[in-house]
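Running low. Any example?
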Amino acid sequence: MYAPRARLALVAACLVIALPLSAQVGTSSNDVDYDAIYRLKDEGFQRSQVMDIASYITDVYGPRLTGSPNIRAAGEWAVKKLTEWGAVHARLEDWGTFGRGWVNQHYEANVVAPSPWPLIGLPKAWTPGTEGTVTAEAIYAPIESEKDFETWRGKVKGKIVLTTPIREVKPSFEPLASRYTDKELSDLQEIDPKAANQRRYDMSRIQLMRKALTFFADEAPVALMEPSRSGDGGTLFVQQGGAYNLKQPPPPGPYSFTYPANAPAQIVLAVEHYDRLARMLEKKVPVTIELNVQNKMTEDEKAFNVVAELPGTDKADEIVMLGAHFDSWHGGTGATDNGAGSAVMLEALRILKASGVTLRRTVRLALWSGEEQGLLGSKAYVKDHFADRETMQLKPEHGKVSAYFNVDNGTGAIRGVYLQGNEAVVPIFTSWMQPFENLGMKTLTLQNTGGTDHLSFDAVGIPGFQFIQDPVEYDTRTHHSNMDVYDRLQASDMMKNAVIVASFVYHAANRDAKLPRKPLPKPQPAQQSNRSTQ
């Protein structure tokens, strides 16, 4: 099934042979248990199941939008596999009502005049479809400022509207895939005290397009079309266009927006196809499009996280957690975001069990849903089990957690750890990384990284860490795109990552003391904590 299997087996054999064979077992300080690492590497490199796991998650169950039948079916499969491997209490743990489920059941768009050709595109999530197949005239009505609303008022009813300006497509002189250079890893360790921790958005543009959606909804077009925000060559990036929760008003502030109930179908096109349409319409050439979009919505879907454990021995009441988000967008099959992380964490747990190593603390796996809508699953779990980030009222289990480890940056090899400012773990992780320097893991940075579920733990004072990973094609080709599919996964990287995670979890589970913590953070107001980090 996997073409590179023979080559990977040879590489894996070399990696195992290169291991130190003398055991250096130690749990009282920062010592590395080389005997355990040998066993973890042997299991993870010689009998890896990570790519088979990834294929089931992505190929078989496909995109896993929170609230969809796909994510529930994939979650039930994960629970079954975890149970087969010997994990205990494997379950789908509900965290509340998510809101509307949404599934795209059919998309087809074709230009029928002046000459026929198919349009590469996808509908945005939580948007309506069309009433069967509709044929309508296209109109190019780009919105560049609010003044343009009056230009197009009364002119778009019953039409398929191209709503944004042409996006220039430039040649790609740089490779789509990359790995961190030594200099880039070194630069990553530098701290800029003036740098902001949150991602920055052009809110003026976002607010304009939200107003445009409301304007066009009132004008009753058949559908709205726009080019992919980035990417080319038929790759398009598509996320959300409608509201998954109409019953909960958005928090006040610049991120607040109420989606119009009468909004039409919304389609993202490959930029080359969008630009061709726009240029034709600019030349006053009439264009007719045949469009059929079938989207199904359901109400009040329950959301869940996949949870399972490997029980500890003499410190079984204490916990080491590992996790990744299980949900995805709908354009591809959610392979690099984040089938890769989910498969790595499932494989890491399997390796820990199959290798027969002893775990003093209980190891708990969690695969989150709702991450793409603002870390919803991990936030809910942390609030239910550990602490309320708004009040910082701690629950008894809060003091029992040693650490949480997260993978959510694609298929790329692990190169180090983001420490979230936790300086006390530097000597500990430096020691734990040593056996993996020959795999390229050698970087610790005190920098924060955003947009992943470790933030839910860090926000309440629990040590939460995201691993540094090679970018590969994550931002250029796969992140939230129609090309986020199994074929973009790198098997050797995935195997390495699972073993590295298993080793870190093993050492955290067997260290005499829990990992050191930063001072407890202050309470975070609801408006701040509800702000999406995606």
Notes: The first strand starts at residue 88 and ends at 113. Confidence is low (pLDDT under 50) at residues 1-27, 529-534. Residues 56 and 378 are 23 Å apart (CA to CA). The chain has two domains: 5-99+300-529, 100-299.
